[in-house]
Write a structure and sequence with these properties.
Strand content of chain B: 15-25%
Largest interface: A-B, 38 and 54 residues
Oligomer: heterodimer
Bound molecules: zinc ion
Distance between the termini of chain A: 37 Å
CATH architecture of one domain in chain A: Orthogonal Bundle
Strand order of the largest sheet of chain B: 3-7-8-11-1-12-13-14-15
Number of helices of chain B: 15
Shape of chain B: elongated
CATH topology of one domain in chain A: Histone, subunit A
Largest sheet of chain A: 2 strands, antiparallel
CATH class of one domain in chain A: Mainly Alpha
Largest sheet of chain B: 9 strands, mixed
Radius of gyration of chain B: 30 Å
Chain lengths: 95, 480
């Protein structure tokens, strides 16, 4: 196995996914198959190859520091599941 | 026990741009909540961020000012974590190709300067702002995304500071460098300058005794000082009692003036950095680097040293005068017209600073031009006006904005230095303080001060004191 159940649980936790025990077992097997497939790439010798950061050849794409119009508050909050006092309303985040 | 204190600081400085880092939303502070957002900074799917060139140049200038080597090929990465103020669920930052690496800044410490390493300087987007709701029983928070995507320069120091005082000196120096270079306005009450600290304590001669504790949420230099004092005391107590300091992240609570455990290193975030596919690679061309290097001004610590060595100023005067670039520029401009560094410094440290403070004006708005101050100091130096009269003239210059030449004429403030004009005043003074004269003639030579004081009073401070003393001494000798 390229990935253990502990690692699967850890990745799920990082992604804020709440997985049941049996889901973790199931996904560990499936993730393992994906990683095994990707292992094929390790057969290539990439010792002298520069890591590719970006697929595009374009470089240095800039915009000038010109303020443009923003959305109205109504538009900005339109998709929010909950809002209050001109803000996005979210579950309490006091730790 | 006395422990070795090891402090490192991460500084976040908001860059002085008009618009955000990846979109055109305005970067103005203090606007109504959620009125400076767009699909890009709200993290909507399918949008394309484009880098603000001014922010990029300012970040390079920051890296140069910290004496960093510049990564000529640099790219942006996604740093993943979940928090309600981070709409994209990742922060666009840098990790493997930081703009600047291996720099340093020199900070003033008692008896000289100390070199503090800068591990790296990089550019990233800010998060929004969470507001805790204070209603009793409220179980929600409010989020304002006006700040989301604002350009931030993160400056990561090496753990080179060994006391709270050194950390304070570092913060002050860093702040003046950022202000000098026009990189950030460093307004702490607006959140433009924020810190994270790391502290560990070692037993003498034993590196790595204590666990490294990181403290977040330090929104002012004062908060950093208070938190460091608190944390050093807390860790000393743990070690004194034979305990072990856990490696952990703590949160500073400004109101309670204490730090609380946030997470231990085992639960530490795994940010899963990878290159942001929305943003291309940036190659810093020679021409860009040259242009920005030329614009980086002489840094405050070096300028301060030059003021001490070239102008003979005290450390204190040099620190105050180089504390702000505009003040130092004004001082040097006065000097270009009147080459008396020490007396110009005295005038600035006393009368000018007092007037600025009293009127709450900035040196850039000071009504007295450098040329006018220079000519007043020149007149005082040549005894054309006495020091006392010059101060009165300066006060009028500040009130009216008129030139010193005009005011000296209008006020009749020209010094009396002609023997023929001073002698009658001396004779009158001798008649008015006979006791002092008798004391002098009886051998108490210091009594001359009282007679001279009377001369100055009678001349309304306009008698040239040197000349008056000379003539008075001669007159008294004749009477002996
Ligand atoms: Zn925007």
């Amino acid at each position: 196995m390229a990935i253990s159940e502990e690692q699967t649980a850890y990745v799920a936790n990082l992604a804020r996914l709440d997985l049941a025990e049996e889901d973790i077992r199931r996904f560990a097997v499936r993730l393992d198959a994906v990683l095994e497939y990707m292992e094929k790439l390790n057969e290539l010798d990439t010792g002298d190859t520069e890591p590719l950061v970006h697929l595009s050849d374009r470089e240095n794409v800039f915009r000038s520091d010109q303020p443009a119009e923003s959305l109205s508050r109504r538009e900005a909050l339109e998709n929010a599941p909950e809002k209050a006092e001109g803000c996005f309303k979210v579950p309490s985040i006091i730790e | 026990m006395k422990y070795e204190i090891v402090i490192g600081l991460e500084t976040h400085a908001e860059l002085l741009t008009d618009s955000k880092l990846w979109c055109g939303c305005s970067s103005r502070f203090g606007e109504p909540t959620n009125t400076q957002t767009c699909p890009i900074c709200l993290g909507m799917p399918g949008v394309l961020p484009v880098l603000n060139e001014k922010a990029f140049d300012l970040a390079i200038s920051g890296a140069l000012a910290m004496q960093c080597s510049i990564n000529r090929r640099t790219f942006f990465e996604r740093k993943h974590y979940f928090y309600p103020d981070l709409p994209k669920n990742y922060q666009v930052s840098q990790n493997h190709s930081n703009l600047g690496v291996n720099g340093h800044i020199d900070i003033p410490v008692t008896g000289g300067t100390k070199k503090i390493g800068i591990w790296n300087v990089h550019l990233e987007g800010d998060a929004g702002k969470n507001m805790h709701v204070e209603y009793p029983g409220a179980n929600y928070s409010l989020v304002d995304l006006n700040r989301a995507g604002m350009p931030l320069l993160e400056i990561v120091s090496a753990p080179d500071m060994r006391s709270v005082e050194e950390a304070e000196s570092f913060m002050h120096t860093l702040r003046s460098v950022l202000l000098y270079c026009g990189i950030s306005d460093c307004r702490m009450q607006e959140g433009s300058l924020r810190f994270e600290a790391s502290v560990s304590l070692n037993k003498p001669g034993d590196t790595g005794t204590g666990g490294r504790v990181e403290i977040k949420n330090l929104n002012s230099m004062k908060a950093v000082s208070a938190c460091l004092e608190y944390e050093i005391k807390r860790q000393s107590e743990v070690l004194d009692a034979g305990g072990v300091v856990d490696r952990e992240t703590r949160l500073w609570d400004e109101n309670g003036a204490c730090s609380r455990r946030m997470r231990s290193k085992e639960e530490a975030h795994d940010y899963r950095y990878f290159p942001d596919p929305d943003l291309p690679v940036y190659n810093i061309e020679e021409s860009r680097l040259e242009r920005i290097s030329r614009e980086v001004p002489e840094l405050p610590v070096r300028r301060r040293e030059r003021f001490i060595s070239d102008f003979g100023l005290s450390e204190y005067d040099a620190s105050v005068l180089t504390g702000r670039r505009e003040l130092a520029d004004y001082y040097e401009k006065v000097l270009s017209h009147c080459n008396s560094p020490k007396s110009v410094a005295n005038w600035m440290m006393n009368d000018v600073m007092a007037a600025l403070n009293e009127r709450k004006v900035d040196i850039t708005d000071f009504v007295v031009s450098a040329e006018h101050l220079a000519s007043l100091v020149g007149m005082a130096e040549q005894s054309r006006v006495t020091a006392q009269a010059a101060r009165e003239v300066l006060a009028e210059m500040i009130n009216t904005g008129k030139s010193p030449e005009t005011l000296v004429k209008e006020m009749g403030a020209e010094a009396i230095s002609d023997s023929g004009d001073i002698m009658p005043i001396i004779e009158q003074a001798i008649g008015e303080v006979p006791e002092a004269v008798a004391d002098y003639l009886g051998g108490k030579k210091q009594a001359i001060g009282a007679i001279l004081g009377q001369v100055m009073r009678l001349s309304k401070g306009q008698a040239d004191p040197k000349k008056a003393k000379e003539l008075l001494t001669k007159k008294l000798e004749e009477m002996e």
